[in-house]
Amino acid sequence: MTHIDLKVKESKKISFWGSVISDFKRNQSIYALLIPAFIFCILFYYYPLFRGFIISIQDYALIGESSWAGLTHYKEILTDMDFWRSLKNTLVIGGGNLFFGFIIQVLLALLLNEVMQNKLKRFVQTIIYTPNLFSWVAISGIFISILAPDIGMVNMALKQMGLDTINFMTSEKWITAIFWFLNTWKTAGYGCIIYLAALTNIDPCLYEAARIDGAGRLKQVLHITIPGLYPTMKVVLMLNLIASLRMFSQSFILTNPSVVDKTEVVMTYTYKLGLQNFRMDYASAVAVVMLGIIGVLTLFYQFVVKKTER
User: Fold this and answer.
1) Number of neighbouring beta carbons within 10 Å of residue 296
2) Within 13 Å, how many C-alpha atoms sit on residue 270's CB side?
3) Burial of 60 (C-beta count, 10 Å sphere; 0-12/13-18/19+)
4) Which of 55, 184, 266, 296 could lock 284 by a disulfide, CB 3.0 to 4.6 Å apart?
5) What is the pTM of this model?
6) To 10 degrees, what angle do helices 81-113 and 118-129 make?
7) Do the beta carbons of residue 231 and residue 200 sit within 8 Å?
């Protein structure tokens, strides 16, 4: 790099910081309004993260001084089969939730978009959105009752057909599929409404031009509607990916000793380590590793999305 190039680079750097400072001075009253939000984020988001990392490299003592442990807890994770089992369950259950949730949400939005009667459309939207208002405790209670081995609606139907009853909630064969179904049922309405809102932003002239060119309804969906939904799909998929990897309530409520090998996820494993076994230091190390995995998968997702856009 020549001397002239260095001077140009330095002048650009100075002009950048100069513009930042002048912008700050010009809008200092507006930036002042952000101070409470900054303080809130630092106190309740970033400080707990930092504190959790510090605990993860200590032999943490609830009473008295804690000693430094270095990377001991991180090395323990490498040979902890319970952690790897819970990580596998997180990826299997989260992957299924992400896949089936995405398909059903988009499909419902496309079908509802075809309904011309506004009253009927709003009624159906309300019906499919209602499960999202229920807590996981309520949803679990409803489906434990429906799937009960003796008096549940599903097993009574199986009896009527001459089939054997199934104890769904304690069956390792069925429990993962039940997790996928319940999560899809709960979140379908929420995602559907987001996609429906995105559909209203697609220019109607595109459909009119397609009809003039002789394109049928299926071709219009494939070549106009789906590409029009693509920006919304990117955002919703990324949010659902993060939510799937951070799942807690569903696993915590529906896990029982018979299916713990299939349903315990990393977040419930962390909870058990920290608040039931009082291993705060090791639980913090597991949480930091999981935070890293979520960050890597999110960056990989964004990399794939950007590559497909080129």
Assistant:
1) 10
2) 21
3) buried
4) 55
5) 0.83
6) 170
7) no
How many other C-beta atoms can be found within 10 angstroms of the C-beta atom of residue 90?
Answer: 24
The dihedral of CA 251, 298, 190, 171: what is its sign? negative
Cα 41 to the center of its chain, rounded Å? 21
Question: Mind listing the pLDDT tens digit for each residue in 60-102?
Answer: 888 888 888 889 999 999 999 999 999 999 999 999 999 999 9
Q: What is the pLDDT of residues 48-68, one digit of tens each?
A: 999 999 999 999 888 888 888
The SS3 assignment for 203 reads coil
Kind and range of the H or E element at 35? Answer: helix 35-41
Q: What residue has token string 């020549």?
A: 2
Q: What's the CA gap between 225 and 231, in Å, rounded?
A: 12
Strand, helix or coil for residue 135: coil
Q: How far apart are CA 98 and CA 282, in angstroms?
A: 29
Place of tokens 């299916």: 259
Number of separate helices (H) and strands (E) present in the chain: 17, 2
* Residue whose tokens read 């995995």: 293
What is the dihedral angle through the alpha carbons of 22, 28, 30, 35, rounded to the nearest 10 degrees?
120
Tokens of 218: 């299926």
DSSP 34: T
First to last CA, the chain: 31
3-state secondary structure of 253: helix
Residue 82 to residue 88: CA distance in whole angstroms: 10
Nearest to 241 by CA among 203, 282, 293: 293
